[in-house]
Amino acid sequence: MHFLNFTLIKLCLGFIGGIYLGFFIDLQFKVLVTLVLSLVALLVIFRWIWNQKSLFLWSSVVLFAVLGSLSTHIHLPKNQPHHLIHLDFKSQEYFGIEADVSEVLRENAYNQKYILDHLKIDHQLYQGKILLNVSKDSVTEELKPGDKVIMSTSLHPFYKAKNPQTFDYASFMQNRDVFAVVYEDKFEVVPQTHFSINAYAGQWRMKMVSALQKSGFDNEHLELIQALILGQKQSINREVYAEFAEVGVVHILAVSGLHVGIVFLILNFIFSPLLSLKYGRQFKVLFTILSLWIFAAIAGFSPSVMRAVTMFSFLAFGQLFRRKTNSINMLCLSAVALLIYRPQLLFEVGFQLSYSAVFAIVMLYPVFSKLYQPRYKIPKIFWDTAYVSLAAQIGVLPFQLFYFHQFPGLFLLGNLVIIPFLGILIGGGLICIVLALVGGLISPLVEVYAYLLDLLVAYVNWLGQFKDFIFQDIFFTRNMFLAILLMVLSFMFMMREFKKSYITVFLLSLLAFIVVSISEISEVDKHSELIVFHQNRQSLIGIKQGRQLEIYSDKTEGFSDSYLLSNYQLIHRIDSTEFRPLKNSFKLNKNSLTVIDSSGVYLKESKSEIIVLCQSPDIHLGKLIETLHPKHIIADGNNYRSYVERWQQTAKKYNVPFHWTYKAGYLSFSLP
What's the pLDDT score for residue 558? Predict the structure, then answer.
């Protein structure tokens, strides 16, 4: 590809690669600085002494890779002396905490959830963020972004995913720099002593909602407006949210790249008259970027909004230059800017989806648009929407299959109508908000806009009739993801320049994907294992042999549709599952596993190497260890905490490895 010949893109790719490596190669700060200085010296030699342009370029790429690793090193919490993770969470001592509410999350059945930032713990400033859970029963008034809270409470760590393929909430929150969780209902809310853009934007958001409510919008329409335009998806009704999710169009309820892109087009249109002025292009770009960031503030500076606004700010800046490769350049620069600010973004699904979709659009839309273009404007809008949707879908396909194990077969049918319609909704919504704030929103406009919102919901309900076209529970592994990612990239290159070399690479990558898929399926089907799951108040042991699964439990009912088992069945291609009563002994290769339940009974002559404790048996663990000489002891999620903590101390005394599924998650053993 010609655009890969540009130095800027090579440097950006080197920097991003260095950021990635920085998470896995733990080099000391001094080593990284030494490497940077050495590479700078090499650059001087290659540029001004030997005049080796090729060596100078690739040394520059390596330098940017090292700078990327250095950026990661600086941002890693363990390398920040005043980061939250250096506190002792296990002590359960109470800390005096003063913090700002930076984000309001979607509540669950029991708690309202908030992200706390700008932490002061025991009068010491700390980096990092805290998740605050407030019981719904105790709430008198909801917290808002910008509120300052003071409390005395203990900090708790996030525990890793406890069962295979279940959502790893700990990693998700840590990627957002949230490393502790607090359960506290008693706290003091005090006025802000300094200016907070979050608080100021939150106040304006409340004014907008209040003005819209006074103009005649009911609660259902206000919820949709807040989600579509104001970035407050947590306010939307759960049933409506579920309907949008089921048909694969839930992305329109979260302000992200699609919404910011539409706002970007609207702003381009509004400020286009400035082009007739001297320096008009510069003024247009300046006002567009300022307006985008004002929109980001109103939408609450959520990660998806920040990501999208940064991306489109660079694209707007790129309008100052008139070169074909500019979009790719600006896309790379925006990614680098975000990753300098927070390298952990590289591992966020939203970041990966956003950039893969935009990259695919930039690469493939010009190709698709040459295939056919209608003569008239309205058909052209729908064809362009189809081209953009198809390109974006190709870009995000590997990530959808790997992270969500599904393919939305309705993406074209949904996006063909919703994306052009969403432009009308966002444009009309912005007009309604402005008119409502100045008191000029008349009832006929309210009725028309409310009717458009009802049409959106009605169309989503109609799409719900075709759920069979949403292909779910697709078996997909990491190796298959890497193979299809290579295939998609080679397809994009081939479509841009239909050369023999690109066609060959695409066909080879397609063959590689087929071989990898067959290999992964064969490997999973042959694998057999015994697994001790984690389940609160229930003992659950599974034996997987081929594509058959046997579940042994003290409760054999109510598991056929459980989230826990459905995920395990998906990643192991399970065809049939049988439920059986829990037994006391299992065979593992040459070893055995003994289950000791509430009866506390075990055979003294059984020399089991692995012991599973469940149902809180009243046993003397020291005598058990002296009698059975186990090499491993497991406590599942069906035990009293006080019992497990006592067993841990005993196992430590006898130097026997102890595994508690509540903290360490499931444990599996291979079978012959």
Answer: 53
Other Cβ atoms within 10 Å of 317 Cβ, number: 17
pLDDT score of 193: 66
Structure tokens at 362: 């930039």
Residues of the chain whose pLDDT is less than 70?
1-6, 193-195, 248, 321-326, 556-562, 605
- 8 Å CB contact between 542 and 568: yes
Q: Can you give the pTM of this predicted structure?
A: 0.84
Contact assessment for residue 546 and residue 524, using Cβ atoms and an 8 Å cutoff? no
Hey, which bits of 122-231 come out as E strands? 124-126, 129-135, 148-153, 178-183, 188-190
- 585-588, strands of its sheet edge to edge: 585-588, 591-596, 610-613, 632-635, 658-660
Please give the biggest Cα pair distance in the chain: 94
Residue 135, strand partner residues = 111
Residues 6+ apart with CB under 8 A from 293: 309, 313
Q: How far apart are CA 575 and CA 580, in angstroms?
A: 17
HSE at residue 276, side-chain half, CA atoms within 13 A, is: 3
Of the chain, the end-to-end C-alpha distance in Å amounts to: 50
pLDDT in tens, 355-382: 898 889 888 988 988 888 888 877 887 7
Q: In whole numbers, what is the pLDDT of the chain averaged over residues?
A: 86
